[in-house]
Structures are given as structure tokens and as C-alpha cells.
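DOMAIN: structural biology
WANTED: fold as C-alpha cells
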Amino acid sequence: MLRFKSLDKLCSYIGLVPTTNSSSGNEMVGSIPPRSNRYLRGMIIESAWISIRTDPALVLVFCNLCKRMRLKKAIIRIAKKLLNRIRYVLKNQTEYKYAIV
């Protein structure tokens, strides 16, 4: 975890950020990139599906996200939140605690 300076760099390595194409002032945002660590991405996304069943704070965030976007996009956002928690736990050598609503 110390290898990545920020959460954005870690998310980019795993493949949880969308591709962007820009040309002459036009910017198009695409889907998640194919050239990333697909095994880690799959594990984090599967863990996000499990965590929305058990963590009350993530359930609340997921329900709010589902009101304005599709399920797959919402679970990518939950995966980013879960990855941020994993990064914090590994970086600070602390125990994972469920967030209390």
C-alpha cells in the first residue's frame, strides 16, 4: 500500500476509474479500462457486493446511489469506498471496524 501515493493511483491500478478520451475540448468518459489488474478488480467488486449486505453505512450509501444511477455503477463506487477502507487498515495497521450509522 505504501507504493501508491494516493487512493486515486490505487484505484487506477486496480481499474476502478473510467477511461477518458479528450480531443479539441471535447471530453468523453468511457467504461472501466481493460488494462488493469482484473483479478484484484474482480475481488474488490465481489467484496463490495458482500459488504453491502453486512455493513450498515455502506448499505445506506448504496441505497442512495441506486436512486440516481444503475446498480453496476453504484457498486463500483462502493468498491472504491471499500478500497479506501482497506488501504487505511493496511497503512495504519489497525483493525477493520464497521461504520455505525
The first helix runs from residue 7 to 14. The mean pLDDT is 86. The chain has one domain: 7-92. The longest strand covers residues 20-23.
